[in-house]
Amino acid sequence: MPVTVLLVDDEPLVRAGLRAVLAAQPDIEVVGEAADGAAVIPLVRSLRPDVVAMDVRMPLLDGIEATRAVLRTVDGPPKILVVTTFEDDEYVYEALRAGADGFLLKRSRPEEIVHAVRLVAAGDSLLFPASVRQLAARYGTGRADTEPLAGARLTEREAEVLRLMARGLTNAEIAAGLVVGAETVKSHVSAVLAKLGARDRTQAVIAAYESGFVAPR
């Protein structure tokens, strides 16, 4: 089954460019487009895309509020990939805090766009971990209560896995580094998410940064 994608951007040329890049892949299908975040929820409900590639800045409803709305109101919501012009943007960080799974720069090369969609669809890795660290250092310091991690009671191995997740390592890379099986890592990741009450890896990593468990720099 192909990865299905909904494109949301108020610039027609951006949507056309993304569609051309993604539609050329045999394992990716663009199932719809929208020019504003206000149109996202009905399209998500009708099209059931795997991934929403969504501009962070739009005139009526921006990507932050659209992300919150999708995650709050849609059962089994899609993965959300924020599309942005500038990586050092508080809007991007707020979208990640709101529940977006990663972000993509509009200037990315075609192969990077395709890779980003596949990664987010698989739920395997945080995109641009170095950039997320910088965003956390600039916009996230001291913003979150430390309780989610203080009360999580992570085991020593789970804490180690969370630190490696924050570095942007995939499950396979974590398994290789720790010399354990991929299924073992998957179990540890699931346990970390459950204990932190995190929707996905991105949310767990942001909680780790904001609580001071992992230093952004």
From TrEMBL:
GO terms for biological process: phosphorelay signal transduction system; regulation of DNA-templated transcription. The modification 4-aspartylphosphate is found at D55. CDD domains: LuxR_C_like, REC_NarL-like. InterPro entries: CheY-like_superfamily, NreC/VraR/RcsB-like_REC, Sig_transdc_resp-reg_C-effctor, Sig_transdc_resp-reg_receiver, Tscrpt_reg_LuxR_C, WalR-like. One of its GO terms (molecular function) is DNA binding. Transmembrane segments: none annotated. Residues 4-121 form the Response regulatory domain. Pfam families: GerE, Response_reg. Keywords: DNA-binding, Phosphoprotein, Transcription, Transcription regulation. Residues 147-212 form the HTH luxR-type domain. PROSITE patterns: HTH_LUXR_1, HTH_LUXR_2, RESPONSE_REGULATORY. This is Response regulator transcription factor. The lineage of its organism: Bacteria, Bacillati, Actinomycetota, Actinomycetes, Kitasatosporales.
